[in-house]
Amino acid sequence: MNHTSTPLFVRPPAPSALRAMDLDARTRTIVSWLCRELAHVLDVPPAHRVGPDRPLRALGVDSLTALCLKRRLENELDVRIKTHDLLRDDTVGEIAALLAVSVAVPAYGTAR
Q1: Where would I find the H helices in the chain?
Q2: Residue 110 confidence (pLDDT)
Q3: How far apart are alpha carbons 34 and 61 in whole angstroms?
Q4: For residues 56 and 95, is the Cβ–Cβ distance under 8 A?
Q5: CATH code for the domain of 55
Q6: What pLDDT is attached to residue 60?
Q7: Running along the chain, 112 residues long, what does each successive block of 10 average in pLDDT?
Q8: Using CA atoms, how far apart are residues 63 and 85, in angstroms rounded to an integer?
Q9: How far is CA 74 from CA 46, 77, 80, in A?
Q10: pTM here?
Q11: Domains: count for the chain
Q12: DSSP state of 47
């Protein structure tokens, strides 16, 4: 039995650190985090990777997963995103680009 401790979620980048980056760096950082987060949430085997060019729906993101992901994104990145945006055929990279623009302005008036 393996007793190694794995975190429940991958630690997200701090919204304040993201806001300090230029748009390209912010997008790359969010892509990297979102790929790892989706791999964890969707229980992707270690031999496989979640790539930025894969549509969320093709990865297995359904309505329940999208609702959970929406809540996580909003809470951790201080952004607002519609569940519908997560259920379209957008790729991980396209969602990350949307988030990179959204994170520039705090959604809830908090500067974390």
Answers
A1: 15-20, 23-41, 56-59, 63-77, 83-87, 92-102
A2: 53
A3: 13
A4: yes
A5: 1.10.1200.10
A6: 92
A7: 45 89 95 92 86 93 94 92 94 96 74 46
A8: 11
A9: 27, 6, 6
A10: 0.82
A11: 1
A12: T
